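Task: sequence design from structure.
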């Protein structure tokens, strides 16, 4: 005989979950900060619905998620415009709810219905959501949540392309230098993904926006912030020395202003920065088609450069034969250039 007086509640269907999330998020519009208790209750309802969504998408720890339900939920979330609500209501959600949202966002974006990613298609039709997420880096309470969501989006070329070509992209040059270290680091991770995840697309972007991009990037390389200099220099090597960007590199190493930046970084107090700068500086020097202006700078500064290079080493007693060979070649080339009659007009 069963002694239970209550029947277990019937699990919600994907349709019901999507509508419950939509309704609870929409209900937040009717609450104000003045109605503290009402707002708290509304946020509790949202948190409960998000926990249900997370359970349906990733299982409850004992049972695996039902694939058909996951697909159906993704479809319903798009159909009910929940994706848009998830983004726009993010700033007022509680910590636990935001954590669930980030977890679910990653799963939802991966859901295919037939051959199409339904949530991806929704965002492609509502690209302003990406701008909203980028701007959220200015709000340190939600910045890390938005960063995770953005990096999930950037995995898709169409969304990465939009951000790269949007006015919002320029904001990253500010966000990577924000005073809050965690936020600045997260912004740099997103910035790096934008410039390294899709080689061909990035190459096309740099070709079309060469001047404006490298003008802004120079500010990062010459930043007073050590972390900014170190990270931006490493990232420059990551995307500039890759084969798809060889034509960009060829253009970059013709410019005296960028040679001067690398020469300054060779003098940095950090060994790590010195070594990273060397790997770009050597391309300027080794270029068989150096313009006269570059030769003049190398010749005029050859004594200081040779002294810097002779003292340059990987550090900590590390033996690096390839580095030493490269350094020797660069030293010889600078010596050769210094003897050329290029200073004569």
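Answer:
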């Amino acid at each position: 005989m069963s002694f239970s007086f209550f029947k277990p509640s019937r699990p919600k269907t994907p349709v019901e979950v999507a509508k419950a999330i939509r309704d609870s998020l929409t209900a937040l519009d009717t609450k104000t900060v003045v109605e503290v208790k009402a707002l708290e209750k509304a946020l509790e309802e949202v948190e409960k619905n998000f926990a249900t969504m997370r359970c349906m998408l990733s299982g409850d720890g004992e049972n695996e998620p039902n694939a058909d339900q996951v697909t159906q939920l993704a479809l319903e979330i798009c159909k009910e415009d929940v994706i848009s609500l998830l983004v726009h209501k993010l700033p007022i959600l509680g910590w636990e709810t935001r954590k669930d949202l980030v977890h679910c966002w990653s799963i939802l974006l991966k859901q295919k219905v037939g051959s199409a990613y339904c949530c991806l298609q929704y965002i492609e039709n509502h690209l302003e959501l990406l701008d909203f997420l980028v701007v959220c880096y200015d709000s340190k309470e939600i910045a890390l949540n938005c960063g995770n969501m953005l990096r999930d989006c950037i995995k898709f070329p169409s969304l990465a392309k939009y951000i790269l070509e949007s006015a919002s992209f320029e904001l990253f040059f500010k966000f990577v230098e924000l005073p809050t270290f965690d936020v600045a680091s997260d912004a740099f991770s997103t910035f790096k993904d934008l410039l390294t995840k899709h080689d061909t697309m990035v190459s096309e972007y740099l070709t079309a926006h060469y001047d404006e991009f490298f003008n802004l990037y120079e500010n990062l390389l010459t930043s007073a912030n050590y972390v900014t200099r170190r990270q931006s220099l490493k990232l420059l090597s990551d995307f500039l020395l890759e084969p798809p960007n060889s034509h960009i590199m060829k253009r970059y190493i013709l410019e005296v202003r960028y040679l001067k930046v690398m020469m300054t970084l060779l003098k940095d107090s950090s060994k790590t920065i010195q070594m990273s700068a060397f790997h770009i500086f050597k391309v300027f020097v080794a270029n068989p088609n150096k313009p006269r202006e570059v030769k003049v700078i190398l010749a005029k500064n050859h004594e200081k450069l040779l002294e810097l290079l002779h003292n340059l080493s990987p550090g900590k007693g590390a033996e690096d034969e390839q580095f030493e060979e490269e350094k020797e070649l660069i030293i010889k080339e600078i010596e050769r250039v210094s003897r050329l009659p290029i200073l004569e007009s």
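The CA atoms of residues 98 and 300 lie 57 Å apart.
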